[in-house]
Amino acid sequence: MELHVVNHELSVGNIEVGGVTTSSLFLIGDADCINLSSAFDTPPESLIIGPIVPLAQEG
């Protein structure tokens, strides 16, 4: 897959993250190249997926 994005002016004031998945990327700004990979060597029958837990709220 090839993705070409042209960003012009970018202004970020406030970001709220409510949760993070098992494999995630959070990026603000520029990157020339991003390579993502994942390896999982545990047998599927031993995988336990629980409920999604939100991040702690500050203040």
Overall 3D form: flat
Distance between the termini: 42 Å
Main beta-sheet annotation:
none
Number of strands: 0
Helix content: under 10%
**Structural class from helices and strands?**
little secondary structure
What is the average of the pLDDT values?
Answer: 76
The residue ranges in which pLDDT falls below 50 over 5 or more consecutive positions are none
Report the C-alpha radius of gyration, rounded. Answer: 17 Å
The helix count comes to 0
Approximately how much beta-strand content do the residues carry?
under 5%
Question: Which terms would index this structure?
Answer:
little secondary structure, flat, 59 residues
Q: Could you please describe the fold and organization of this structure?
A:
This is Spore gernimation protein GerPD. It comes from Lederbergia graminis. It is a single chain. This protein has 59 residues and is largely without helices or strands. It contains no helices and no strands. The relative contact order is 0.25.
Question: Outline of this structure?
Answer:
This protein is mostly loops and 59 residues long. The protein is flat.
Q: How are the SSEs ordered, and which strands pair?
A:
Layout: no helix or strand
